[in-house]
Design brief:
Layout lengths: L2 H13 L10 H15 L10 H17 L6 H55 L5 H5 L12 H21 L6 H16 L3 H20 L8 H22 L2 H11 L5 H16 L9 H6 L6 H34 L3 H20 L9 H9 L12 H4 L8
Helix pairs in contact: 1-2, 1-4, 2-4, 3-4, 3-13, 4-6, 4-7, 4-15, 6-7, 6-8, 6-14, 7-9, 8-9, 8-14, 11-13, 13-14, 14-15
Length: 400
């Protein structure tokens, strides 16, 4: 099977990520199948740069195994650990596939993700506005969750689509921008209609980081004007979409209700404080999936969950993985030689920063799309890198 066809299959698998009502989702089965085809075709190769994140993931898996000893519900812990193990495999497949296909495979992943997200966004908005049959399925309680189980996950899933759409609006010729403008409108509207405060914050942080990197990508301000050219139209466009949606009374009422503090927020923060206190007395953790078993409700924080279930080493390994992934993405968003590489890594950095912030208030450890973008951060080093800013500004040496 040709490399191009394998990339097309991988892109198609990314589209299926919009349907996760059932477990395992079709995406889970297809990604393992396509991963096997990549392996048979010798199209998997782990980049050398992935050694450090691989070691951190290995440490995270070890902390999961050690904490199993303290589990009060071993079957539940084993199931939770199995899901975590699958996501580590997903990360490895995507990193190793990019290790051979390089930019072509990276673009195939983003393209499939964006196509699927656009479909999910369009269907979601249509459903929310009263489409028969799909309306009650996708927005049963006034919050849009599409073909996901939870509106928080749905909204967070659609946030990266907006960044990918902006990336293509910048990178492609004028004649091909209209579909990406539609993708931006659909994803922005869907994130808004999920009424997930975490997803709103996620998208806001992601956009801010993307445009910051976009501004400074050519040397700490030499192209600062580009943000003033591109950012206002994007902000205005998304604002118009939001205003049009708020003109619907039901949407306006839901927005007012969700915008402020909720009745369960006090309980959420109290449980987190209690969980941290318990974790201090259990430095090796209580076991995978034991947060709900111990405190009756979820921790609503990836970091609190990791500390409680896997101890201090578990928390360190997952936080370090996220931070080094963000750092690498930021570096290449600034110093990659090709503009397309810089934009792709700026998208990845923005998405990961948004997800890292949202992870403080929502448990994201088993969100598939989070692991997809953690893998995107470890695509092979671009062929050429520009000199660091400090060296690029040195005066030229005198001619001989």
């Amino acid at each position: 099977m040709t490399p191009r066809r394998l990339d097309t299959m991988l892109s198609a698998v990314m589209v299926t990520g919009i349907y996760v009502i059932v477990e395992p989702a079709p995406f889970d089965l297809f990604i393992l199948l396509v991963g096997g085809l990549f392996l048979l075709g010798r199209r998997l190769s782990m980049p050398r740069a992935a050694l450090a994140p691989g070691a951190l993931l290995g440490l995270f898996v070890v902390t999961n195994l050690l904490s199993l000893v303290f589990s009060r519900d071993l079957p539940r812990s084993l199931f939770f650990f199995a899901v975590t193990g699958y996501l580590v495999v997903l990360w490895a497949i995507l990193v190793a596939a990019q290790g051979v296909g390089r930019e072509r495979t990276s673009d195939a992943i983003l393209r499939g993700y964006a196509i699927g997200g656009t479909i999910a966004g369009v269907l979601g908005v249509v459903a929310y506005l009263g489409a028969p049959l799909i309306g009650p399925i996708m927005a049963p309680n006034g919050r849009l969750h599409g073909l996901f189980k939870d509106p928080n996950v749905y909204g967070a899933y659609l946030a990266p689509v907006a960044l990918i759409a902006i990336y293509h609006l910048i990178a492609v010729p004028d004649a091909r921008r209209l579909p990406w403008l539609g993708a931006l409108a659909a994803s922005g509207a869907a994130v808004f209609l999920s009424f997930s405060r975490g997803a709103w914050g996620n998208l806001g942080v992601a956009l801010a980081v993307f445009f910051f990197l976009f501004t400074f990508a050519d040397g700490l301000g030499r192209s600062w004007w580009r943000t003033f050219v591109f950012f206002p139209p994007v902000a205005l466009f998304l604002g118009i979409v939001a205003i049009q949606l708020l003109s619907v009374d039901a949407i306006s009422n839901m927005f007012e209700m969700r915008f402020g503090m909720q009745s369960y927020d006090d309980l959420r923060f109290r449980i987190q404080a209690e969980a941290v206190s318990v974790a201090l007395h259990n430095p090796l953790g209580l076991g995978p999936g034991m947060t709900e078993k111990t405190f009756s409700v979820a921790a609503h924080s990836t970091y609190v969950r990791s500390l409680v279930e896997h101890g201090f080493l578990g928390l360190f390994s997952i936080v370090a993985l996220v931070l080094v992934s963000i750092a690498r993405s930021v570096w290449f968003a600034v110093f990659a030689a090709a503009a397309q590489d810089r934009l792709r890594f700026a998208v990845t950095a923005g998405v990961l920063c948004g997800m890292a912030v949202e992870s403080a208030v929502i448990d994201t450890i088993h969100w598939r799309h989070y692991w997809v973008f953690l893998a995107m951060a470890w695509a092979p080093t671009p062929h050429r890198q520009r000199a660091a800013i400090s060296s690029s500004r040195r005066p030229p040496s005198p001619a001989r």
